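User: My advisor, Dr. K., asked me to get a structural model of this assembly before our group meeting. I'm new to this, so sorry if the format is off. These are the inputs:
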Amino acid sequence: MPGRGRFITLEGIEGAGKSTAMGVIQACLEQAGHTVVKTREPGGTALGESVRHLLLQPSEQAMSPKTEALLMFAARAEHLDKVIEPALQRGDWVLCDRFTDASYAYQGAGRQLGSEAISILEHWVQGSMRPDLTVLLDLPPDTGLDRAAGRGQPADRFESENAVFFQRIRQAYLDRVQAEPTRYRCIDAAQPLEEVRHALQETMQQWIGQQAKSRQ
Ligand code: TMP
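Assistant: The format is fine. Below is the predicted structure of the whole assembly, which you can bring to the meeting.
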């Protein structure tokens, strides 16, 4: 029977390059011989993807911040029960594009609900369950928003927010990294793509090595 898998999450503001980074991290994990379940939040289940649709639709612009936070956690509860926990128990490694750090950053700081409200929901929905590793792709909001706009897709409900909103989010992520440095790895995502890729590979190889040692 394999041991419990590991839970790895990826965070960053819009335009940080998360899609590319997900691929790089997945390749590193698979090269090390792990079975990877790649998933995302909000989403990852049929119900979660419906909730995602509601959350991202520009026509829901007037949604109350509390409703937004509760919908994030409703999707998360389903995701944990149906996908994440079963995978970890099978011994698979779960790689998730965003998780609760995003609720602290976007709802807690961006929407100014405060971290206490998010912490209450986190404890209720997750108990003591936390990611084993969180990779933060950090970059200035102006750079990220320019990159996101350059994709040519219509802006979703979050992407239509202003630079001040994203500045609060970036700062909240950086504060979380500083408060709990062992769980996070922060990558400078303003560097050229090749350098970001290289930094991610090095970070992952080192962390995977540590995990292998902690199992011996
Ligand atoms: P993304 O797939 O492009 O990352 O879009 C998901 C959006 O949802 C992104 O703008 C961040 C937002 N989000 C929150 O506001 N809170 C959360 O807890 C999560 C998981 C995502």
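One thing worth pointing out at the meeting: Strands lie at 7-12, 36-40, 93-97, 133-138, 184-188.

User: Perfect, thanks a lot.
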